Amino acid sequence: MRIDIQGPGMALTGEILDYAERRVRFALTRSRSRIKRVSVRLGEGRGVRTDGDNGCRLQVYLKHAAPVLVEDSGPDLFDVIDRAAERAGRSVAMQVERQAGNFQWPVVQSPVEPEDDKSDISR
Predict the structure, then answer these.
(1) In 3D, which of 82, 98, 93 has the Cα closest to residue 24?
(2) How is 53-105 classified by DSSP, letter by letter?
(3) How many Cα atoms within 13 Å fall on the side-chain side of residue 98?
């Protein structure tokens, strides 16, 4: 699995590069045989609501499937990388399961209301 990490307009230190690669590899290990390459773009967030925040955009190119795109932003770059990598791992795993035909939507059961105990207990 090839991982390309870029940070246009941002000074990427060895620590940031190593951390991002390690987190992305770990999050995508389960589906690595289905992944062609991963593109990671780190930088400052753009727009009104992300002013001053750091951003992470992960694009995972899969074999025989559409790419998976995950974006996240926040004040701490390491936390942003963590969240984006975890979400990408879950999204890729779901896409791979769907492609294999093994995916089943999780069943959410409604809470069971306790029945009134009207049994007559005599002692």
Answers:
(1) 82
(2) -EEEEEEEEETTS--EEEEEEES-HHHHHHHHHHHHHHHHHHHHHHHHT---P
(3) 12
**Looking up tokens 């620590």, which residue turns up?**
15
pTM: 0.74
Residue 6 pLDDT > 80, yes or no?
A: yes
What is the three-class DSSP state of 47?
A: coil
CA atoms of 55 and 8, how far apart (whole Å): 11
Answer for the pair 88, 24: CB distance below 8 angstroms, yes or no: yes
Give residues with Cβ within 8 angstroms of 57, minimum separation 6.
39, 40, 41, 69, 70, 71, 84
